[in-house]
């Protein structure tokens, strides 16, 4: 089974929070998915760099700055699919709200993102 690496925004904003939660959930629920910690990758931790370089990657960016995508590319990884949280949530009429603790609305955002991550996985 091919492993798919999921890497989420680590920004301190509500979109980063729901990105991280959705990536974590999918990695826990789907055997073929692993999480790559973008902070450890950016910090030069070889375990995560190797993981990112060796597998297909889906990035869930919290904003158009695309920091996660940029960091992975700087570490020599090929990003196969990029999901942008605000665009995905806007289509559903949702906006992430909380930065540190998720509320009921943010949990709805997570479910929407999980569907999009799984759709992206099927496209790889």
List keywords for this structure.
Rossmann fold, 124 residues, single chain, alpha/beta, 4 strands
Brief overview:
The protein has 124 residues and is an alpha/beta fold. The chain contains six helices and four strands; from the N terminus they run βαβααβαβαα. 52% of the residues lie in helices and 14% in strands.
What is the SS-derived class?
A: alpha/beta
CATH architecture: 3-Layer(aba) Sandwich
Proportion in helices: 40-55%
Question: What is the approximate shape?
Answer: globular
What is the radius of gyration?
13 Å
Main beta sheet: 4 strands, parallel
Q: In total, how many beta strands?
A: 4
What does this structure look like?
- This protein has 124 residues and is an alpha/beta fold.
- The protein has 6 helices and 4 strands; from the N terminus they run βαβααβαβαα.
- It has a 4-stranded parallel β-sheet, sandwiched between helices.
- Helix content is 52%, strand content 14%.
- The chain has a single domain (4-123), classed as Rossmann fold.
- α1 crosses α6 (104-123).
- The chain has helices at 14-29, 38-42, 46-54, 67-74, 85-91, 104-123, and strands spanning 4-8, 33-35, 57-61, 81-84.
Task: Describe the protein's topology.
Blueprint: E1 4-8, H1 14-29, E2 33-35, H2 38-42, H3 46-54, E3 57-61, H4 67-74, E4 81-84, H5 85-91, H6 104-123
